[in-house]
Amino acid sequence: MDGWKKFETLSSSFPDGSPQNHPDAAELDAQTFADWIKAHLRTRFGRWYFESMSRAVGFLGPAESTEVSLLHVAWGQHVAPQSEHPEAELLHGGAGQIPELISREFTASLRTNAIVTTISHGQDGVEVRWSTPSGTTNEARARVAILAMPPSAADAITFVPPLPTARVALGRQMRMGRCAKVLISYQTPFWRAHGLAGLGIGNRSWVELCADSSDPRTDVGILVAFVVGDRYTRWSALASDARREAILDDIEAYFGLEARTPVSYDEADWSREEFIGGAFSAYMPPGAWTSCGRALVEPVGCVHWAGTEAAMRWPGFFDGAVRAGEAAADHVRAFLSDH
To answer: What is the pTM of this model?
Structure first.
């Protein structure tokens, strides 16, 4: 508890706004979270607990504690505290339905299966060029552009003229987390009959965190498990059958022998997705916030930025994505009124 009190004291010392506003930002950004853990935690359990938090929390990528800036972790706890239970609610039908629901409002102008290759920008607006899987190229013009994507994804687009140095550096330094999500379904949520909540947290070989993701409108039991950080790197190199057995070994350790016989087993490996490159979000390594962090939300003429990483409250979460979108819309309205 002493270590947690120290961490809470540090995270509560941040003023509102971006983390560079902290009076000791440079010092905090020069350290990794692992440096702080080594200095302040004495027991093996205490060190593992904080290290696992680095791998589990949305705004942290996830990342290993050796990879992420202490400034990023402490600020993230300040603006997205786990004490407020950000994952307490689920969506009936799953999060995958959200893009389709949104798309119904943009049927006339929505483009799918389109890869943006170049954005030309200047005083007269933007020209966006994209290609399709068949090789067809197209372009569109607008007064402004909002890019709602991780900085690393935006870095894959060619900008004419090139973006400022700080924004280019941000795209190359702000890394996506290494993470796979595994959904395991059963005929019923059998763990409830044993008085278990379906939440598993422990220093296992592969799954440090799993949770009950069952829809209360059905009788199907669903456990969601995450493989993250260095564990993900080792696990993703295994053959398909070996990956499955590795996950079920840990799920059995949490919930007993019944966990070994699921009805279905599905992996979502975000790091292998070409236009995503990882999950849950992007994180800042040491030095990134203080050297190029302000470029995260600073418009470049008529090019504006959104995406959950750009949020100053709940970055890395759905809530942060909405907030960043609303902030970008406000910036665009102000920009258009001045131009």
So the answer is: 0.91
